[in-house]
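By way of example, what follows is a protein record of this kind.
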Amino acid sequence: MIVVAGEALIDLVPQRRGDPLSPLLPARGGGPYNTAVALGRLGARVSFCSRISTDPFGESLVERLREEKVDTALLQRGPEPTTLAVASLGPDGSAAYGFYVEGSADRLFETPAALPAGTEALLFGTCSLVLEPGAGAYEALLRREAGRGAFVALDPNVRAALIGDPDAHRARFRGWLPYLSLLKLSEEDADWLEYDPASRSAAGPAAVVLTRGADGMTAFVRGGGEFSVPGVRVDVVDTIGAGDTVNAALLHAFSARGPLTADAVAALDGDGWREVLGFAARAAALTCSRAGAEPPYAHEL
């Protein structure tokens, strides 16, 4: 079982690029939510750990999880409103966001007492590790489960507009590194966090995967390995959910190879890494070829 912990929200996506008054289409989203859906579509056993509103948006979010075979036993529910993220699309389909988060349900997440039996990995990231008081509860879960030997993955997916004290957040990020088995981040994330993915610290993750958009991705592996694959060329509609799809594809591909452990990831050879990264690149490309966060199903890959 892979547990994805973090926010679920509603993206409001403009239907016309470059028009500030374009009609907005609501779409279910949030980085961790998209990752859970992508894992479900790939056929993984996955559970989503979050707090979701009981408002109509929240009901729609939960309905989709069930449709995609994502376990909902770890969900917390509350009457607070659903977080809204207003997207703006650049000429190349890249997305930027403005957030409406005050008093929303996902900020009131509480650390669960236990995770399902058979949980082998957890993924964290995006807004959920920024917005208090929920951020502290997610961080407590990250540290607790890493201490119990679980495989812990992180996608920081930086949303700078939500971070009031950048230096404090960078310091907090560095404090998570010893607890991680896998770190996935974009070039933009690495620049903002002032983090060198090639550092390969013995106290850091077993592997760091750096995504470079259309140029592909590179894995920096503890012990000195460095492996890259090119991007898969497609007609890009938008990039919403592409990084979340990479998270899901990486975890699913690693899990398919056997027990999901930091040592197993660090020991993967070059051919194995290029196979895993290539699978993730193909999955992300398919997501980019359609509007919104619509990750591929296993049969499409």
Remarks:
- The longest strand covers residues 9-14.
- The longest helix spans residues 270-288.
